[in-house]
Amino acid sequence: MSGLEIFFDVLLAVMSIVIVWFAAFSVMKLYQGQR
Fold first, then answer.
1. Domain count, the chain
2. Quick one: 27 exposed, middle or buried, by C-beta within 10 A (0-12, 13-18, 19+)?
């Protein structure tokens, strides 16, 4: 059970990192498009 919890923790961390990176990437693209 602990292994499954660790797997879910890693999955959640990777998903949050990907979401934050995607948001920053889209914001930077928006900035470049406006300028």
1. 1
2. exposed
Instruction: Calculate the alpha carbon distances from 5 to 8, 9, 10 in Å.
Output: 5, 6, 9
Domain span at 21: 1-35
- For residue 34, the one-letter residue type is Q
Q: What is the mean pLDDT of each run of 10 residues along the chain (35 residues)?
A: 92 99 96 84
Q: In this predicted structure, what is the pLDDT of residue 14?
A: 99
Cα 25 to chain centroid distance, Å, stands at: 11
Which pLDDT value is given to residue 33?
86
